[in-house]
Amino acid sequence: MPIDPGKAPSIDLAAWLQTPPGRYLLAWEQAQVDAAVVDLFGFHALQLGLPGLGGLQANRMPHRWVVGRDLHSEFEALPFESASLDLVLLPHALELACDAHALLREVERVLRPEGRLIVFGLNPASLWGLRQKLGRLKRRGEPFLPNFRPGGDFIGYWRLRDWLKLLSFEVEAARFGVYRPPLRTEAWLQRWQWAEGVGSRWWPVLGAVYFIQAVKRVQGMRMIGLSKNKRMAAKNAPAVALNNHHKNND
Among 68, 106, 154, 194, whose Cα sits 20 to 30 Å from the Cα of 45? Predict the structure, then answer.
């Protein structure tokens, strides 16, 4: 019989990111987010979760926050005013949250109209997802991935798109990546490097991780965008890692 999720072996997220598969996943996500945020303009950006990912380092908004937690975090009450943020990045934060629905509703609240949301999620319909599920069915043995969510289930790509649609988010871009099998050593991951090209071409939706970029739409509003002067005002500023209640570091 399946083991009790509360008694299942678990892996510390920060430690797992230092393993060969963790570094492999992090490198793919870093490349995706750098390309996505470099030309997103505004004034206020927030990253929730996965502090090992420099999700805002390529962005030029003057005020950036990085709120990092490990497992089962309560992000559902964000200390920001409604419609005050231009960009929110959720690298596996939905998998960290005790209530993923509540977190998405809170993100929708704090984003301004036409604000951007970027999400990274682990794909249950992948070799990595299957390996994790089979590992949980065993009575002993360490799982391949950290048990992000209570119970260990990941949020499927199409399921998340449905949630976003209900909250009036429009998906602008989406892609999958990380097609090598769930291997633990650097040597074996290198041997399977060829799977990246083959997987992205022949079974693209079976990548171990997915990336979604969405925009918050408000019915009846048409945002012209930031003026040239405002864009010039958005100078580089370092991202700040905060822990508990977060204040703007002007």
Answer: 154
